[in-house]
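Supplementary Methods. Inverse-folding protocol.

Structures were first reduced to a C-alpha cell string of length 408. This string, shown here, constituted the complete conditioning input.
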C-alpha cells in the first residue's frame, strides 16, 4: 500500500504541469482578456487543487484506509438515489409545486449527505480496486507494456469522489469548433452559468457551461452523485486519459489541450478511444460485481418510441447545413426549437447551441457527432483479437491518417 501511494504522489508531480496548461488559447488577445474578466471570480484553480491533492495523498501513506464491505457499497448508492429524490422534493416544495414537511425532508437530506461523506473513502477504494483488476485482466497495465513485459500498473488508479468542476466551452457562431475551454468552480447555480454565458455570447461567440461527470486530474475527479455503473465508466475513462498521455496518441492530445498544436481529430480519437474502452471494461466489472435487475432509462425511452440518438444526429446534420450556407441565426433558432422538442420528450437540455455540439461532438460515438472516426474505431475494435490489441494499435497512432490506413 505504501509503495502504491508513493507512485501516486510521484505521478501527481509529473502530471501537474500538464494540467496547468489546460486553459488553451483564444482567437485574439483582446478576447482573452475579456473572457478572463468575465470568468475571473468563477475559475477553478487546477494547480492549487493538485497541490492540495498531493498533501492528501501524503497523509494516506500513514493510513490503512477504510475497510471495503458490500454493506457499505449498498448503503452508499442507496443514499445517492434517495438524496436525488429528496433534493427534487425540496425544490418542488420551495417552488410551490407540491406540499410536504420541508424541515423533515431537509433534515433527512443532511443526514444522508453526512453518511455518504463518511463512506466516500470506502467507495473510492472499491472503484480503484475493481478498475485496476478489470484492466489487468485484459492485460492492460501501463503505457509501455506493449514494448516491455512489466505487469505493473501505471499510472496507479486513484479516484476522488466529489462534485467535479464545470467546464466553459466557447465555439464560433458560424461553425462548430471548441476554440476555448475554461475550468470553473464545482459550486455554481444555473443563474451563475447563464449569467456567464450571456456575457460571453455578447462577444459574438457561442458558449456553454457544461456539467462534467469527471475530469482527469490526479487523482481522477469523479461525480459522487451517480450510480455505480456511471462511476465505473467515468473513473475508467479518466484513468485511460492519464494512461494515454504517455503514448504518441495521448501526448498529441496534451498538445491540443495546451493550444500548442490544435488537432480536433486527435482530440476526437482520444475521447472516443477512452470512452469505448472504459465502457467495455466497466460493463464487465458491473456484470461481475454489481449487476441488478433494473430497467435503465435508455430502455424505457426506447419503449416509448422516442429515439434520442437518431434525433440528435438529425439535428446536428441540419445545423451543419445551416452554417455551411451562412445562415447562423436560422441555425440558432432551429436549435432552440429542437431543444424545446427534446425537453417535451423527457430530455432536459438547458441550452442547445454551437458550443454544445463542439463539446459533445468530440466523442465520435456520441449521437451529436458526425465524425466517421467513431465508426472507424468500432471497426478496428471488431477486427482486434482483444481489447489490449486494440489499445496497443490505437495508442501508437499520431493522426487520423494512421487510423484510416489501419482500417484499409
Amino acid at each position: 500500500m505504501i509503495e502504491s501511494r508513493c507512485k501516486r504522489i510521484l505521478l501527481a508531480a509529473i502530471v501537474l504541469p500538464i494540467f496547468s496548461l489546460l486553459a488553451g488559447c483564444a482567437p485574439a488577445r483582446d478576447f482573452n482578456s475579456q473572457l478572463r474578466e468575465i470568468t475571473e471570480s468563477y475559475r477553478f484553480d487546477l494547480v492549487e487543487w493538485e497541490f492540495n491533492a498531493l498533501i492528501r495523498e501524503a497523509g494516506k501513506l500513514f493510513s490503512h484506509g477504510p475497510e471495503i464491505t458490500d454493506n457499505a457499497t449498498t448503503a452508499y448508492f442507496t443514499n445517492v438515489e434517495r438524496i436525488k429524490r429528496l433534493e427534487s422534493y425540496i425544490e418542488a416544495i420551495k417552488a410551490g409545486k407540491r406540499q410536504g414537511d420541508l424541515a423533515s425532508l431537509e433534515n433527512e437530506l443532511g443526514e444522508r449527505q453526512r453518511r455518504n461523506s463518511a463512506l466516500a473513502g470506502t467507495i473510492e477504494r472499491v472503484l480503484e480496486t475493481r478498475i485496476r483488476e478489470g484492466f489487468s485482466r485484459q492485460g492492460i497495465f501501463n503505457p509501455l507494456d506493449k514494448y516491455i513485459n512489466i505487469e505493473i500498473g501505471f499510472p496507479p488508479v486513484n479516484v476522488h469522489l466529489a462534485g467535479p468542476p464545470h467546464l466553459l466551452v466557447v465555439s464560433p457562431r458560424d461553425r462548430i469548433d471548441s476554440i476555448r475551454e475554461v475550468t470553473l468552480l464545482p459550486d455554481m447555480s444555473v443563474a451563475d452559468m447563464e449569467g456567464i454565458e450571456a456575457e460571453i455570447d455578447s462577444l459574438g461567440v457561442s458558449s456553454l457551461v457544461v456539467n462534467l461527470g469527471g475530469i482527469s486530474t490526479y487523482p481522477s475527479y469523479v461525480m459522487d452523485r451517480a450510480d455505480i455503473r456511471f462511476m465505473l465508466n467515468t473513473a475508467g475513462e479518466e484513468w485511460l486519459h492519464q494512461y494515454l498521455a504517455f503514448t504518441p496518441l495521448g501526448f498529441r492530445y496534451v498538445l491540443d489541450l495546451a493550444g500548442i498544436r490544435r488537432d480536433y481529430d486527435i482530440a476526437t480519437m482520444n475521447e472516443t478511444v477512452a470512452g469505448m474502452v472504459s465502457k467495455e471494461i466497466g460493463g464487465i466489472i458491473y456484470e461481475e460485481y454489481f449487476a441488478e435487475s433494473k430497467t435503465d432509462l435508455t430502455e424505457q425511452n426506447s419503449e416509448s418510441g422516442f429515439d434520442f440518438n437518431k434525433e440528435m444526429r438529425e439535428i446536428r446534420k441540419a445545423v451543419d447545413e445551416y452554417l455551411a450556407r451562412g445562415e447562423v441565426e436560422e441555425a440558432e433558432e432551429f436549435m432552440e426549437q429542437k431543444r424545446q422538442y427534446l425537453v417535451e420528450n423527457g430530455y432536459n437540455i438547458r441550452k442547445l447551441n454551437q458550443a454544445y455540439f463542439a463539446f459533445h461532438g468530440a466523442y465520435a460515438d456520441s449521437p451529436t457527432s458526425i465524425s466517421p472516426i467513431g465508426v472507424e474505431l468500432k471497426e478496428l475494435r471488431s477486427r482486434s483479437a482483444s481489447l489490449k490489441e486494440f489499445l496497443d494499435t490505437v495508442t501508437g497512432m499520431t493522426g487520423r491518417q494512421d487510423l484510416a490506413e489501419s482500417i484499409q
